[in-house]
Amino acid sequence: MFNRRNIARYGLALLLGPALLVVIGCSDDGIGKRYPVSGTVKYKGQPVAKARINFISKGAGVQGAYGTVENGTFSSLTTRNDGDGALPGEYVVTVDTREIDEGKVKSQASDLAAQHKMEKVSQIPPELQAKALSEAKSSIPGKYQLPETTDLKATVQEKTNKFDFELKD
């Protein structure tokens, strides 16, 4: 028998059921399916100890991906969400082993804030970041740091992808 309580329960179920299906069924973030990308990076036959690797898309409107090289290997590239892979397409690949002295940069930012009578800096100014990066040493040739000068290329396909990069002088 239908009474007010039963009608309220059925009404709530009818409203919440489709809403839950929409939330569960709409996990696509709108940029497309990504695929796993892993591989190795060596310089002079030796694994690169630590670096950042970037897959920079050659296609218009295609988002790139990035990851970390540890002991010569990388896996789980990130496009939008941690470890979500890369979109299919052609990429120019950069590798950068430079590490900035974050403590020094933060100290310089604090000094700059004090000079301008600010309590503290919420973001490190780009000029301080650029200066620190230019002072950082690289363990690989500098040509691999920029998309304009690197000769590394990769084509991500709609499957699990593995790339092995050998850096040369």
Labels describing this entry:
single chain; alpha+beta; Immunoglobulin-like; four-stranded antiparallel β-sheet; 27% helix
Task: Describe how the helices and strands are arranged.
Blueprint: H1 4-25, E1 37-43, E2 46-47, E3 50-57, E4 65-70, E5 73-74, E6 89-96, H2 102-115, H3 126-135, E7 152-156, E8 161-167
Parallel strand pairs: 1-8
Antiparallel strand pairs: 1-2, 1-5, 3-4, 3-6, 6-7
Describe this structure in words.
The protein is of the alpha+beta class and 169 residues long. It folds into 2 domains: 37-98 and 137-167, Immunoglobulin-like (Sandwich), CATH 2.60.40; 99-134, no CATH class. The protein contains 3 helices and 8 strands, in the order αββββββααββ. The strands form 2 sheets. Strands 1, 2, 5 and 8 form a 4-stranded mixed β-sheet that branches. The chain is globular, with a radius of gyration of 24 Å.
Brief summary of the model shown:
This protein is α+β, with helices and mostly antiparallel strands and 169 residues long. It contains 3 helices and 8 strands; from the N terminus they run H-E-E-E-E-E-E-H-H-E-E.
Report the CATH topology name of the largest domain.
Answer: Immunoglobulin-like
Q: Quote the average pLDDT.
A: 83
What's the helix count? 3
SSE pattern, N- to C-terminal: HEEEEEEHHEE
Could you estimate the helical fraction of the residues in percent? 25-40%
Low-confidence stretches: 17-27
CATH secondary-structure class of the largest domain = Mainly Beta
> What's the total number of strands?
8
- Structural class comes to alpha+beta
Overall tally of structural domains: 2
Bin the strand percentage: 25-35%
Distance between the termini: 83 Å
CATH architecture field of the largest domain: Sandwich
